[in-house]
Structure formats: C-alpha cells, structure tokens
Amino acid sequence: MDRRLFAMFETARQSKTTEIIIGQIRTAILAGRLAPGDRLPPEKKLGEQFQVSKQTLRESMRALEHMGLIDVRKGVGGGAFIVAVDEQVAAQNLANYLYFKDLTIENLSEFRRIMEPYAAARAAERISASDLETLRRLNASTRENLRCKHWDRVSRDEIAFHRLIARQTGNPILILMLDFVETLLEDFKKILKPDAGFMGSVMAAHEAIAEAIADGDADLAAEQMRAHVIDVEGYLARLKKSRAGKKLWENCLKGERG
User: Fold this and answer.
1) Which residues have a Cβ under 8 Å from the Cβ of 94 and sit 6 or more positions away?
2) How far apart are alpha carbons 143 and 196 in whole angstroms?
3) pTM for the predicted model, two decimal places
4) How many Å apart are CA 16 and CA 123, to the nearest integer?
5) Cβ atoms within 10 Å, residue 60
6) Could you report the per-residue pLDDT of 185-239, keeping only the tens digit for each?
7) Locate the HTH gntR-type domain: which residues (predicted)?
8) What SS3 class is residue 39?
C-alpha cells in the first residue's frame, strides 16, 4: 500500500468528529490525492491518524459508504475503497432532499427555462452523428409507444431525450443538475398522469427540437426548447390546479411512485 495514504489525514479531536473525518476524505478526493480504486489505510491506522475510537471511525465509514464515496469490502483483499459516485444515485439523493422543500412545478420550470435552451443550443453545435441517431431513435420509439399506448415507455423515452441533450453540454455540473430536474419532473408526471394529447404534443416538440439540432441551428434549437418547456409548465400547472385540495406529494410519500 502507498505509504502516502498513512500520512494523509489530521487528528480529528474537535466536536462533530464524524463530519471532520468525512470532510477530510472528501477533500483528499477533490484534491486528487485519492482516486476511485484506492484503498484507505486499515481501520487501526486510520483510527491512529484521526485519533478517534473504533466506533467513531466505523460510524464515519458507514456515512461515507451511504454517500457513495467508498465501498467497504469484506474478506481477503477487503477494506474501504474509494469509488466514483454514480450519477443516478447523486441525482436521486438531490431529488429526495427537494421532496420536502415545497417544490413546485414553477420551480422546476424556471430552472429548465434557463438551462435547457442552452443545452439544446450546445447540442446543435456539437452533437455527434451517433448521438443524433440516438435522439432520432428515441423519438421513433416514443411515437411507436404512443401508438401502442405504452405510457410508461413513452415517459422513459421522453426523459432519455432530455438527458441526452443535457450531456451535450460536456459540463458535469449541468449534466447532473438537469438530470435530477428530469427525475423530479418524471415524478410530477407519475402523480398528475397527463393524458395522451399532452404526450402527443411533447412528441411533436421533441421532433422539432431534434430537427433543429440536426440542422445545426443553435438559435432555433434553443427557441424550440424554450417553447417546449413553457408549454409543459403550463399544462402541468393547469392539471395540478384542476385537482385542487389534493396534496401533490401525498401519494409519493406513501410509496406510490410506481
């Protein structure tokens, strides 16, 4: 094992010891001193470095594992290994946090109006031939699933369409944020259950966006995306209002997210 790992951390004697340990390990990852696949020093050595009890150290390791930063393996060759946090896990954790913040459709749409037109413009400027073909396949799949009334598959394809466009920004912050906003929007749709007419209008908007991207017209792609986001916001807001008196998240919190 690399001996540099044994001298990486400082004593953790202050209050909130667990937070300090987590913070130091996260900082080491950010600074590049720890990378996915690296194994942390053995429990005894880590305890000596931080000068904490075995119980406190194990509590910190459990927290880091829950956050997705380490993987604790048993047996020969086991230990605590640094892992890359899964994008979907990170997005879902952010979504879970926002469920309890009186989130509104308008909150989501405000963010989408700012960021999604930018993503569409970037896609028009830089999308690869293979990604463009994937966009077209998603739209074709959506149209077929609409015809067959496979509503869950329609929703899956719609979300995948937006996520693929988000990835064209090449910016991991934007990709993550747009991804988890799509996750939240998907939950709104599961609860509000939009009708086939709405899904058809979304399909038409996606085809127009894909065409602008294929033509390399960044301004038109952004304009089409902005109009689409505004239309979706208006429809979902009206649908929610028509069901006045019903708490938007009550079914979600009862485990009916389907």
Assistant:
1) 176, 180
2) 11
3) 0.69
4) 45
5) 23
6) 888 888 888 999 999 999 999 999 999 999 999 999 999 999 999 999 999 999 8
7) 15-85
8) strand
